[in-house]
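pasting for the record
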Amino acid sequence: MTGGTRAGTVRRMHLAVQLPGEGERALPPDFDAYVRLARTAERGLFDFLLLAERPPPADSRTGQAPPATGPEPLTVLNALAAVTDLIGLAAAVRPGGREPYALARRIAALDRLSAGRAAGPASAVPELTVPRGPQGRPVVIGDGDDAAAEVAVVTGAVRRARPGTRVLARVGYVLAEEPGEEPGGVRAAGPPPPGGPFADLFAGPLLGPPRALADRLDAHVQSGAVDGYVLLPEPAPGGRGLDAFVDRVVPLLQERGSLRTAYRGTTLREHLGLPRPVWKA
């Protein structure tokens, strides 16, 4: 099995991590910090890491958005391709300010350089007349309303625009420092927004000990509500960091059979259980 959604009767959970990106305040201090996060996610056998652009807020007096600061996502991902082996590399970038064909070529180049581990938005993953990588075409990543998305990252309500799309909820978390702390299980930091029985995923960071957090995350996957999660770790020490999740929660998910214990394929499509595109002759 190469990253499918089931192992026996247990649905397979897909995991990703979103690294702080352009326009965000909590940027890693240097490239070495990105490398550490990427290698930690790969140690946890995550499907992919996501680097997104977020435009900085507009100036309240002028209404104008200031120039973006921080690292450019595709530049960082190309560099991370050289220091990782199997984890997928996804860029949520906006065409604004870029020539669309040049952006598409850069994502296609990332796919080739990483041996089939790239993903990008639909606008940047057209069929190009360039040599194809091992996965045929970069995976298309979007939101729940994006009909072209092969992976939909949802943030406020669970939506699946078409069958076969992998739906991943973007969630934050804080692990209790010691086993037994927070004995009541997982609670959300804020009130749940409207949106049905899965709204607790989007009510702020989930707070609780590792086993209770694993229970909550796995329950939504086994129910079929979502296929997995894009985690939002904070670089702070303690239970907010990615190391804490990989060391304390990943083993619990593997015990249940809902998370892989080894990569079975080499491309992002294989991790996600997505078919390789069929091209017209």
